Amino acid sequence: MTKVNGFTSISNAIYILFTMLKIQYMKNLFENRKLPYVTVLTLTVAVVASLTFGMEGQTSQNVVAQNDSADTAQLQTANVTGELTKPAGGNPYGGEKIGDITISSDGHQTNIKGLVSASPAAGNVYEAWLGDAGGSEYKLSLGQLNENGTINVSQHMVNPFTYTIFFVTEEPQDDVDPNSANAIAGVQLKAPFGQ
Prior knowledge:
This protein is of the alpha+beta class. It has 2 domains: 3-74, no CATH class; 78-188, Sandwich (Immunoglobulin-like). It has 2 helices and 10 strands; from the N terminus they run E-E-H-H-E-E-E-E-E-E-E-E. It has helices spanning 9-31, 37-74, and strands at 3-4, 7-8, 78-88, 91-105, 109-116, 124-131, 139-144, 150-156, 165-172, 183-188. The strands form 3 sheets. The chain has a 4-stranded antiparallel beta sheet, with no helix packed on it. Strand 1 and strand 2 (7-8) form a beta hairpin. Helix 1 runs antiparallel to helix 2 (37-74). The longest helix is centred in the N-terminal third of the chain and has 38 residues, at 37-74. It is elongated, with a radius of gyration of 29 Å. It starts with a strand and ends in a 7-residue tail after the last strand. 18% of the residues are buried.
């Protein structure tokens, strides 16, 4: 069996045979006067166009799929499991354990699950963040933690590996300031994070 751009010559032959059967069916409808001539002519042109351009479109889609899968194979993956700890030594992590965290990423889809064992003060909420400490200092809010302290974030990111820390802050319930408050817990992310 010969393969051409991901398609076998048999699949090409089946496609051509199916198209020829459609043309014959339309010809029979015209001869039996069930369809007006203009309709049959229009359908014939559509079939010929699909025969001419249809295989080219299928080949392009196949090449894109091959390229996408090749790019995905080159992506790094990360699975970080650790303890969320209180701030220490000027870092948002490193002190007493206050929860657990699991972060997995394929370089785009990033899933973060965890639990903070403390509770925010009345009128406050916990908010999760990724930060680029020691680099751009950029902080990305991942949103509010659930009321029971669970962290459940799933996002498609351009490059999550630029971040070096995950941390949690305590914020006012209706906070309008987009900046993070001081961390109440955090974890340093290991390679491939921090690139």
